[in-house]
Amino acid sequence: MKRIILSAILAASTLVSATSATAAGSFSVQIDPANTEEANAIRTGLAIFAIARALEGDASVLQNGNGNAAGIGQNGNGNWGVVQQEGNGHTGVLSQNGDGNAYGIFQFGEGTDGQVMQNGDYGTGLLFQFGW
To the nearest 5 percent, what fractions of the chain are helix, strand and coil? Predict the structure, then answer.
Protein backbone atom coordinates (compact mmCIF):
# COMPACT_ATOMS: atom_id res chain seq x y z
CA MET A 1 0.00 0.00 0.00
CA LYS A 2 2.92 2.34 0.74
CA ARG A 3 4.17 1.81 -2.81
CA ILE A 4 0.77 2.69 -4.25
CA ILE A 5 0.57 5.89 -2.20
CA LEU A 6 4.15 6.87 -3.11
CA SER A 7 3.51 6.15 -6.78
CA ALA A 8 0.36 8.25 -6.74
CA ILE A 9 2.13 11.16 -5.03
CA LEU A 10 5.05 11.03 -7.47
CA ALA A 11 2.72 10.87 -10.47
CA ALA A 12 0.68 13.76 -9.10
CA SER A 13 3.75 15.91 -8.45
CA THR A 14 4.89 15.30 -12.02
CA LEU A 15 1.50 16.43 -13.31
CA VAL A 16 1.60 19.56 -11.17
CA SER A 17 5.10 20.52 -12.29
CA ALA A 18 4.19 19.99 -15.94
CA THR A 19 1.10 22.22 -15.74
CA SER A 20 1.28 25.97 -16.23
CA ALA A 21 0.90 27.98 -13.03
CA THR A 22 -1.92 29.97 -14.62
CA ALA A 23 -3.96 26.92 -15.63
CA ALA A 24 -6.75 25.84 -13.32
CA GLY A 25 -7.02 22.17 -12.52
CA SER A 26 -7.01 19.52 -9.88
CA PHE A 27 -5.98 15.96 -9.17
CA SER A 28 -7.35 13.38 -6.80
CA VAL A 29 -5.98 10.34 -5.01
CA GLN A 30 -8.52 7.81 -3.76
CA ILE A 31 -7.41 5.06 -1.40
CA ASP A 32 -9.54 1.94 -1.10
CA PRO A 33 -8.23 -0.87 1.08
CA ALA A 34 -7.58 -4.22 -0.53
CA ASN A 35 -8.01 -6.26 2.65
CA THR A 36 -9.13 -6.12 6.28
CA GLU A 37 -5.69 -5.13 7.55
CA GLU A 38 -5.56 -2.07 5.28
CA ALA A 39 -9.16 -1.16 6.18
CA ASN A 40 -8.28 -1.30 9.87
CA ALA A 41 -5.21 0.88 9.28
CA ILE A 42 -7.36 3.53 7.54
CA ARG A 43 -9.97 3.36 10.32
CA THR A 44 -7.23 3.80 12.93
CA GLY A 45 -5.85 6.79 11.03
CA LEU A 46 -9.29 8.38 10.86
CA ALA A 47 -9.79 7.77 14.60
CA ILE A 48 -6.44 9.42 15.40
CA PHE A 49 -7.42 12.35 13.15
CA ALA A 50 -10.71 12.69 15.06
CA ILE A 51 -8.93 12.65 18.42
CA ALA A 52 -6.30 15.17 17.28
CA ARG A 53 -9.02 17.53 16.01
CA ALA A 54 -11.24 16.92 19.08
CA LEU A 55 -14.11 15.89 16.80
CA GLU A 56 -17.32 14.65 18.33
CA GLY A 57 -20.07 12.66 16.69
CA ASP A 58 -20.27 10.48 13.65
CA ALA A 59 -20.02 13.21 11.00
CA SER A 60 -17.74 16.25 10.91
CA VAL A 61 -17.20 19.05 8.43
CA LEU A 62 -14.11 21.26 8.84
CA GLN A 63 -13.77 24.29 6.59
CA ASN A 64 -11.05 26.91 6.32
CA GLY A 65 -11.59 29.27 3.39
CA ASN A 66 -14.34 30.91 1.38
CA GLY A 67 -17.08 29.59 -0.88
CA ASN A 68 -16.84 25.99 0.31
CA ALA A 69 -19.82 23.61 0.45
CA ALA A 70 -19.95 20.26 2.21
CA GLY A 71 -22.50 17.73 3.35
CA ILE A 72 -22.61 14.33 4.96
CA GLY A 73 -25.67 12.07 4.87
CA GLN A 74 -25.79 8.89 6.90
CA ASN A 75 -28.36 6.11 6.94
CA GLY A 76 -27.48 3.20 9.21
CA ASN A 77 -25.55 2.57 12.40
CA GLY A 78 -21.93 3.09 13.36
CA ASN A 79 -20.95 5.18 10.33
CA TRP A 80 -18.20 7.80 10.60
CA GLY A 81 -17.35 10.45 8.05
CA VAL A 82 -15.33 13.63 7.73
CA VAL A 83 -14.99 16.31 5.06
CA GLN A 84 -12.08 18.73 5.56
CA GLN A 85 -11.68 21.68 3.21
CA GLU A 86 -8.63 23.96 3.20
CA GLY A 87 -8.82 26.73 0.61
CA ASN A 88 -11.61 28.18 -1.51
CA GLY A 89 -14.42 26.95 -3.72
CA HIS A 90 -14.49 23.27 -2.75
CA THR A 91 -17.52 20.99 -2.88
CA GLY A 92 -17.48 17.77 -0.84
CA VAL A 93 -20.36 15.34 -0.38
CA LEU A 94 -20.27 12.04 1.50
CA SER A 95 -23.24 9.68 1.54
CA GLN A 96 -23.14 6.57 3.73
CA ASN A 97 -25.88 3.93 3.49
CA GLY A 98 -25.36 0.84 5.62
CA ASP A 99 -23.58 0.07 8.86
CA GLY A 100 -20.02 0.57 10.05
CA ASN A 101 -18.75 2.67 7.15
CA ALA A 102 -15.79 5.05 7.56
CA TYR A 103 -14.58 7.63 5.03
CA GLY A 104 -12.58 10.85 4.87
CA ILE A 105 -12.62 13.50 2.13
CA PHE A 106 -9.71 15.96 2.35
CA GLN A 107 -9.62 18.92 -0.08
CA PHE A 108 -6.79 21.44 -0.48
CA GLY A 109 -6.13 24.44 -2.70
CA GLU A 110 -9.00 25.69 -4.81
CA GLY A 111 -12.05 24.42 -6.64
CA THR A 112 -12.11 20.67 -6.10
CA ASP A 113 -15.29 18.59 -6.30
CA GLY A 114 -15.51 15.29 -4.44
CA GLN A 115 -18.58 13.10 -4.17
CA VAL A 116 -18.44 9.71 -2.50
CA MET A 117 -21.26 7.24 -1.94
CA GLN A 118 -20.83 4.22 0.28
CA ASN A 119 -23.53 1.55 -0.03
CA GLY A 120 -23.31 -1.58 2.08
CA ASP A 121 -21.60 -2.37 5.34
CA TYR A 122 -18.09 -1.69 6.61
CA GLY A 123 -16.81 0.24 3.61
CA THR A 124 -13.66 2.26 4.21
CA GLY A 125 -11.67 4.77 2.22
CA LEU A 126 -9.98 8.12 1.77
CA LEU A 127 -10.12 10.78 -0.93
CA PHE A 128 -7.43 13.46 -1.18
CA GLN A 129 -7.98 16.30 -3.67
CA PHE A 130 -5.68 19.14 -4.62
CA GLY A 131 -6.81 22.05 -6.81
CA TRP A 132 -5.19 25.12 -8.32
Answer: 25, 45, 30
Q: Model pTM?
A: 0.82
Distance CA 10, CA 45 (A): 22
Residues 46-54, mean pLDDT to the nearest whole number: 89
Residue 22 resides in a domain: no
Q: In the structure, what pLDDT confidence band is assigned to residue 3 with cuts at 50, 70 and 90? A: low
The phi, psi pair for 3, rounded to 5°, reads -65, -40
Number of domains in the chain: 1
Please report whether residue 17 resides in a domain.
no
Cβ partners under 8 Å of residue 69, min gap 6: 90, 91, 92
DSSP β-ladder status, 124-131 and 59-64: unpaired
Q: Of the candidates 64, 124, 75, which has an alpha carbon nearest to the alpha carbon of residue 98?
A: 75
